[in-house]
Amino acid sequence: MPGALDAVRSRPCENELEKTQIMPDTNSNSEPADRADYDVFVVGGGINGCGIARDAAGRGYSVGLAEMNDLGSGTSSWSTKLIHGGLRYLEHYEFSLVRHALRERETLWNIAPHIIRPLRFVLPLHSGLRPGWLIRIGLFLYDHIGGRKKLKKSTAIDLRTSPLGRPLKAEFKKGFEYSDASVDDVRLVILNARDAAARGADIIVRTRLTAARRERDSWSLTLRDEESGAHRTVTARILVNMAGPWVDKVIADAFGHNGPRHVRLVKGSHIVTRKLFDHDRAYIFQNADERIIFAIPYENDFTLVGTTDEDFEGDPSDVRIEEHEIAYLLDAASNYFETPLSRDAIVWHYSGVRSLFDDGADEAKEATRDYVLRLEGGRGEAKVLQGFGGKLTTYRVLAEDALERIGQAIGRKGGTWTHEPPLPGGDFPTDGVGRLEDRLRAECPELDERTVRRIVRAYGTDAARFMRAGALGRDFGHGLFEAEVRWQIENEWARTSEDVLWRRSKLGLRFTDEEAARVDAFIASHLDGTSGGRSWRETADRTLHSSEGERQRGNILA
Amino acid sequence: MSTERYVIGLDSSTQSAKAVVLDRKGCNVAEGRASIPLAQPDEAHAEQNPEDWWSAVKNALRDAVKTIDPGSIDGLAISNQRETVAFLDDKDTAVYPALVWLDCRANSTYQSYADRMGREWLHRATGKPIDVIPVIYRLDWLRRNEPSVLERATQILDVQGFLVKKLTGRAVTSPASVDPFGLLDIHEMDYSTPILNSLGLSQEQLAPMAMSGREIGRVSPEAAKKTGLRAGTPIFAGGGDGQCSGLGANVTGPGNLYLNLGTAQITGAHSQEPAIGLNWRTMTAVTGSGYHLEALMRAGAFFVDWLVETFIDESKSPEVYIRLEAEAEKISHGCGGLTVTPHILGVMTPHWDPGARGAFAGLAPFHTRAHLYRASLEGMTAEIARSITAMRAENVPTDRIRAIGGGSKSALWRQMIADATQLPVDIGTTAEASALGAGIIAAVGAGWFVDFAEATAAMSHVEGTTEPEPEGADAWAALMERQGHLYEDTKRYGAGRT
């Protein structure tokens, strides 16, 4: 790509030309001498990108974020959906990672009590695998090193007498119970994006960075709207590359050359089965290969079993569960459950790739989950901050670290702040979910119990803003009403039924194709109508060139 | 070839290395020992050459496995002298003498370091009351006086870390060995960043840590040749000798206390929480599931030996002790008002006054040498019993005491301790509780037992028990009260005071 290689060099004349084409930034409180549209431009609308956008916007930087697909559609939505210290990371002596993660559990629970719920895990002892003493040490550390306040501490349980032992084979006699938390992973991304937007950030979805050029101390960034094909150029003082599995690709595409390879892609697949047990605890099973497998109550009627862990070479946009992974998960769970799991119990499965910093670890399960941030760029040159690795639980801490680096590169603004103010809808106490449910029940008595719980645990106090008596609108079935879809379109960047049914909710588990098509039809009619006023809409209006765009579909359904 | 399997508890203490080969019952089937030279050029300095630790270990191991098939050894764990630190460069060459825990060159600087860090913060973070012994104060002394040492030392290792490097090629240690240094934040179980920063150290200069009982390496072919061990023998992370001896004395969970009546005296209890107080220092347990609260008397058996040698009989022969013990038994409780504080080496818990001096108060014409002896045991007993009372006040369970060390041979002293604390006092069978504790860690690591409790139940034994006599309780309460005032009353006679 000779043209793109040229683009690496500074070409001030062309830059001037392009600068005249972009709209002035309405939100800039940067230095008078600086005429960049954005202080900070983030590539990647996953949890880390959105977390950084929120933190930066809250500190007073002007922020843009481009996501090539839907928010959270890459890695963030394919997680095991846990906010956890990572008991197993203790085995690899990653005390500091675990400590930060444990601390974060309660911090995040406090700022997002709707989408984060404490979850008790049952860990059966398995003779021949990790000995009891080692697990006891791990749980002791778990209870002690992370500043636990509200979460319950670990206890030993007798599986022979406890109802928690009933779904398991009789050979499992002893176990432990400990606390972690579950999270709605996509909603965590969405809520960060919403709060970033509320604090002035431009969140630009379905838009890809196609070229990045250094113009002395700022960046000229070419963006392509993936729906319309329109290109536009924006300038920014620092580029933040949080593209997850695509982090190396973003650099390669935008700079037109391959840099050193930093990421190691590790694939993780999950299966969702019909409910395997009746209580509200999750199981953590040790497997003979020293890995662990979770079986977690999921969306009321299901159980989530995962994950696998294997190196992945290939296109991260096209990742699918493989037969041997399904067999592995079925086997791992069947080792523990009294009733063996068969293939026909599976109702859904999903796969994603984690991007870990390549630290040369021998096996996928040992590659470090801790994140690495790298600030690159010479003296007087515009900088790029690249992020590798990380996990859901540490996104907020990662963002704080990123802001520290950003401050070094373009000058400091504000201090750390994200540990207290709640995420949108999370402005209620951690024990207040029941009261919000009561309120919603009273307001909309027609909602079934499952829907009441789902709505409150997705939107928190925001539910009251759109779930209004007599104003729910069309009923799409399974507890999905027009009011919610509108809210997602107008406030959460939803553009397809997939965004609504598989990301901002998991109602897709219950919807037929025809039912889903009705949601798509509604969204299309709604988008053609009088939306506007939304940041992504404004973004689209800035279009300079246009060509036929191709919509990227996810890869959820195998 | 015998099918019996063994583990080795390797105790690298201040004066010697002891390698003890143990079977599944904790029986000592073979052992080797070798002494380690200690240089004490003056009162303030105590130094060793780390290579001497390794020489002693090589000799001790070679002797221990002389009659044992090395292939029958399932693993080894190390118990180490605690506040002793080695400084090495990349080539593993010492750039400075190892500073032994006895070294008090930081006497003139440790208070100001504590002030700089914030005394309360430092005590809370490390669990260690402000005292010259933790290694951080000597590191701070080096930073002020010999700054190049900390720059040249790319590896700053505790004794375990050093020996593991020699045995396996890679230095790995455990929180239970690093904790005595004062470098750990015991609440986080990790190196304390503020403390590292204050000393200008980076974590790269320190060994990574694994919880005691985890495999941290295997004996290299080179080390195998030098030690007589089989190459590939697993090394499990061990810990400091104090905590190891606690484990050897069956302290694996709440309730059991251990009492090391050695040269220095330790009263240790298990606590689930990192309780902070002046009545003890808080130390990470080797079981990984709690802490040891350690009350400390710097002059324990040392004080008794000094008394006997100085005032009673220079020969210190066993007969002298037997005769004294018999005479002292006949003297009634309280020694007719003779009261003793044993602080001839200063006092640690609960006053933390290195300049304190010992005292004999209330002397009368009827007092004999046997009175001096008995009153000394009574004074030390009162110190022990008060620290246990303080632990109880923190809701630390105290059910029974396991006495180890030379002093535990005295039936008179054991009875005093049982009566003063109103707890049964068990006598341990092994003279080498630290090596036994290390062996227990290796046995757990090797998978012999499901946990530390099962391992100690199988490997740590009791020879007999001294039951408390309930009628003694009130008299002891009065004596403890009286003896407790003596430190404050004589404080002004401490070293360097006018």
Molecular structure report:
The complex is a heterodimer of chains A (558) and B (498). Chain A is 31% helix and 22% strand. Chain A is of the alpha+beta class. The longest helix of chain A is centred in the N-terminal third of the chain and has 17 residues, at 95-111. Chain B is an alpha+beta fold and 498 residues long. Chain B has a domain at 6-242: ATPase, nucleotide binding domain (Nucleotidyltransferase, domain 5, 2-Layer Sandwich). Chain B has 17 helices and 21 strands. Chain B has helices at 50-64, 110-117, 119-126, 135-145, 147-152, 159-168, 175-178, 193-199, 221-227, 241-248, 301-312, 318-330, 369-393, 411-421, 433-445, 452-459, 473-490; strands spanning 6-12, 16-22, 28-35, 47-48, 73-80, 85-88, 94-99, 155-158, 184-185, 190-191, 215-218, 234-240, 255-261, 265-271, 281-284, 291-297, 339-341, 359-361, 398-404, 425-428, 462-466. In chain B, the strands form 5 sheets. Chain B has a 7-stranded mixed sheet with strand order 15-16-14-13-19-20-21. In chain B, strands 3-2-1-5-12-11 form a 6-stranded mixed sheet. A 4-stranded antiparallel sheet of chain B has the order 4-7-6-8. The mean pLDDT of chain B is 94. The A-B interface holds A 93, 95-96, 99, 131-134, 136-137, 140-141, 144-145, 147 and B 187-190, 208-211, 213-214, 273-274, 287-290, 444, 447, 449-452.
